[in-house]
Structures are given as structure tokens and as C-alpha cells.
Amino acid sequence: MGIVNEVISLACSLAPSRLIERDEHLLLSPPHSNPFPVELWREHEPLSVVHISQQYKAVPFAPPRGVYESAHLRVEWQTMDNRQPFYHRNCDVDEISYQIDGERTLMTELGVVEHRPGEFSRIPRGVAHDNYGRRESHLLFYAPAPVTEERSPARQSEIVFPPFPGWEPGPVNEAVTQCLGTPGHDIVVAPVDEPRLLQQAHAEKERLQVLTGTGDPGVSWMYRSPGFRLGTVRREPSAERTYRRTLDADEVQYQISGHRTLVSQRGIVELGPGDFVRIPLGIAWTSVCREPNEYLTLFSDRHLPQIAETTRTAEPYTSQRLAALQP
Fold first, then answer.
1. Strand-pair partners of 300
2. Gene3D superfamilies attached here (predicted)?
3. Nearest alpha carbon to residue 286 among 246, 227, 230
4. Contact call for residues 73 and 180 (beta carbons, < 8 A)
């Protein structure tokens, strides 16, 4: 412990960040006692972690599991070893997916993508799509359109017919939804001619863009829109701790690989693969890691409440607990 640096920044604007010095012990300690007979500040809950195992487990098909949701952004987790039983068309949002594990065929009016772990793609508003997963899991992000890519694609969707080996046409529906694709917000559901829907790709010039990170330490930004930003972060072990405080956005982190300790003004918690955590705007935090690790980072300029059940919470800061984290 001692003097550390803190970066104060804005995630959803181009304003420059500021670097200030901090006494680390004071930064993480509870406030001094209040000498006045009036309440000056509130009690705050520690950071909460949602864990969903990355190990595949056979389960019947079910709707995606909501993890965080507001009126402007929705984060879901899904696992599949089957076809989705309908095509889906969003009225109001772009739908971004991140492949966690396994293999998934994404079939759309803009072509077909064979997704592998570590890949992102964005389905523009109004484009019908379906999935065929094989012992897989992925994350879904619904954000108001339009969302734009922040990096060049690794590849793009292709016209593939049939879309996967063993595919046969059959009775299938198309669901049109609003309100971030939330279950129960369908507008209309009707039968659809699947071969004709997939052949629409021949008439379209646009293709889905498949994005991946660089593999280098640091942040790889993937997508952004006003009030939303999404990327991945690769960290290497380091004895230096730099704190970050974002002034204009809640940050959700999803641990992809490796382990690290999240140290914050809302407690200290160990994170491993499959863990989600939300850091509210204005909270200073840093990571301590003894091994290479990677996590996904999402910024929302609106409060992004957790809707999934909490798995565990951060422990209160103590100087002894922090000293034990020294690499």
C-alpha cells in the first residue's frame, strides 16, 4: 500500500482522461465518522457477482437467461445443443453475440456465420436470424440501433445453402419483437418459408461482420453507440496497480479466462471464468492478477440493474486483505 495512480475517465465520450495520485488505504477505507446529527451519506451494498458455469450441461431448450437489463440495454446468457425453434426479427435494437464455448451456426438474411469461441457478430435491426448450437454457450447484447463496429472484421458472413450439414426445410415460425427482444414482447408470430428467407442473402449487399480481439495486452474495442461501448481486455501479471473511475457509465465485466482479484471501493472479490460483475459509475477499482487473463467490458451510460440471482458478494476492504494480494 502507499501512493497509487487513479485514472478518471468518460467511457461514452471522446473527452480526455485525467490522472491523479491517491493514498490507496484512504481510497478504499470507509468514511470518517459523521460529527453531525443528520444523515450525510447512504450505506452502499458491496459488489455482487453472478456466476454461470462455462462447462456445458445438457438442458432442455429454454429462453436466454437475463443477467442485466434496463430500458436501454439487455445482457443475456444462452446455451444450446439444438436449433432455436423460430426465426427472430428485432424492431428496435441491434443484437450482438459473443461466443463463449462450443460451435454455433448463425443463419440470417445477410448470410451464415459459423461461430467459434472468442468471436463477436452484430445482427442489424430488422434482420431475421436463427441459431443452431452444438454443446455451446454465448452472450447476447441488445442495444438501440444503430450500433457500429470499432475495428475491422476478421471475416464476414457467407451465402451457404444448406446452412449446415443435415439441414432440411420444415415448418418454422418468425417472431417479430420490440422492447430489447425481452420475452413476452412479441408483436407478431407467423409461419415463414425458411429456404426463401435464407436465399434473401443473394439480394443483399450487406454482410455480418465477425470481430475478434487482437490478442495483445490492453483493450480491444468492438462496438459502440451513443451511451454504449463493448470490448475485451487482456491483462498480464503486474506489481503496479492503477485505479480507474468512470464518471458517465456503469461497467459490466465478464471473466472469459484466467483469474484476478477485483479491488474496489465496494469491496474485494475473486473473479474466475464465468463470473459477471457490475461496477457502478463513479466507483474506483483496479485488478490484481497473478496469471494472464481476459475479460469482456461493457459500458452503459444508463443505470444497468442486475436481474439474475447473486452468487456471491465482495468482502469489505482491510489493509491485511490487500497486503495479501501482493504479487
1. 228, 250
2. Jelly Rolls (2.60.120.10)
3. 246
4. yes
Which amino acid is located at 264 in the chain? S
* pTM metric for this prediction: 0.95
HEC per residue, the chain: CCEEEEEEECCCCCCCCEEEEEEHHHHHCCCCCCCCCCCCCCCCCCCEEEECCCCCCCCCCCCCEEEEECCCCEEEEEEECCECCEEEEECCEEEEEEEEEEEEEEEECCEEEEECCCCEEEECCCCCEEEEEEEEEEEEEEEECCCEECCCCCEECECCCCCCCCCCCCCEEEEEECCCCCCCCEEEEEEECHHHHHHHHHHCCCCCEEECCCCCCEEEEEEEECCEEEEEEEECCCCCCEEEEECCCEEEEEEEECCEEEEECCEEEEECCCEEEEECCCCCEEEECCCCEEEEEEEECCCCCECCCCCEECECCCHHHHHCCCC
Specify burial of residue 236 (Cβ count, 10 A radius: 0-12, 13-18, 19+).
exposed
Query: In whole angstroms, what is the distance from residue 82 CA to residue 11 CA?
Result: 38
Grid cell digits, residue 314: 465482495
**24, pLDDT greater than 90:** yes
Rounded Cα distance, 29 and 325, in Å: 17
Render pLDDT for 190-209 as a digit per residue (tens, 0 to 9).
Answer: 999 999 999 999 999 999 99
Long-range contacts of 105-109 (CB under 8 A, 24+ apart): 105/131, 105/132, 105/133, 105/163, 105/164, 106/130, 106/131, 106/157, 106/208, 107/131, 107/132, 107/163, 107/164, 107/198, 108/157, 108/201, 108/208, 109/197, 109/198, 109/200, 109/201, 109/204
Q: What angle do CA 296, 300, 303 make, to 5 degrees?
A: 125
